[in-house]
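A quick word before the example. In earlier lectures we treated sequence and structure as two separate objects. From today on, think of them as two lines of the same record. Here is ascorbate ferrireductase (transmembrane) written that way.
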Amino acid sequence: MSAVPKTPQMNPTTVIVENGPQNPPESPNNNEGSQFFLVIMNIINSLTHMLLGCIVISAFIYANVARASTFKQHIYLCVFGYVILMAQAVLTFNPHNGWSTNIKFPVKRKLHAVMQICGSSLAIAGTAVQMASVFNNLRSTHGIFGFIAFLLTVVSLVGGIYHLIYQNEMKGTLRFCHAIVGCLTLTSAFIALALGFDSMRNSILRPDTNTNMFIASTVLALVGTLIVSCGKIFNRRCA
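And the structure line, produced from the sequence above:
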């Protein structure tokens, strides 16, 4: 007699369907948790864009009131460079960022590099205009942080050009350092912007509630811009 073939044993966690074995569906609790996290991150991203727009409009209004033409150029160039272009360059890789969600990753990398190069160039030009017109620009806290942002922006510009030309070589330590420098650049620039709003306290921003609101908006916009990038840096470093 021929031996009766044994029935193959199946993993109890495997579900058999017509197309083959598949993993069991996620539990409702995990699905609800991921949906809640997605909603929170989308809300943070929307608030970040609104706050960025708020501080851009506020800075431009103050630039129009300012008398010195070089100071107007300084505000316009730096705000365009840091807040509009470089902040959006960071948000390009945010998976919850609305306008860049459907863009493929290779295109995102090129777009990030182009926005970073353009933003860095404008910010460097804006800082150079102010430094050329104001003697001893480091006498204020705003000037000190602005100069720190200027130096880091030069490094970011070099990194952005390298990233655009040698995209496939931006791996490991180079990518980690590039991300760290980018975060420090925006942090220094936004601190300088907040200090710039604080210096307006005795000029056009009256009462102090307006100044405090603009400073708080700058800080919250910075946090919303960098929260995902800092999380990726931490996970990459701990991996």
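Notice the following. The radius of gyration is 24 Å. We will return to this example when we discuss secondary structure assignment.
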